[in-house]
Amino acid sequence: MTGSAALGELVVRRPDLLVSHVERLIEAVRATELDREIPNFEVVDDPVTRQTLREHEEGERERRVSARRTLLDVVVAVIEEAPEAT
Predict the structure, then answer these.
(1) Of 80, 78, 66, which Cα lies nearest the Cα of 26?
(2) Residues of the chain falling short of pLDDT 70
(3) How many structural domains compose the chain?
(4) Range of the structural domain that residue 13 is part of
């Protein structure tokens, strides 16, 4: 998340610095595609542990979704700044 936030700040101030990296940014968006299903942790017998694992996984997923959205915003901003970059 920190990396995408830093790119978000950079694209606001100096989008020209990211133009040459737009293809790699698009690849990064593709690489962060999430699985549609959250693991159910059936192999864990203890229900409290299973719930803890599920909550942790959901929190991580929310952070990844947020970082991915920021990265998508960066890509869009760069492309709007320099459409020839794609």
Answers:
(1) 78
(2) 1, 85-86
(3) 1
(4) 2-85
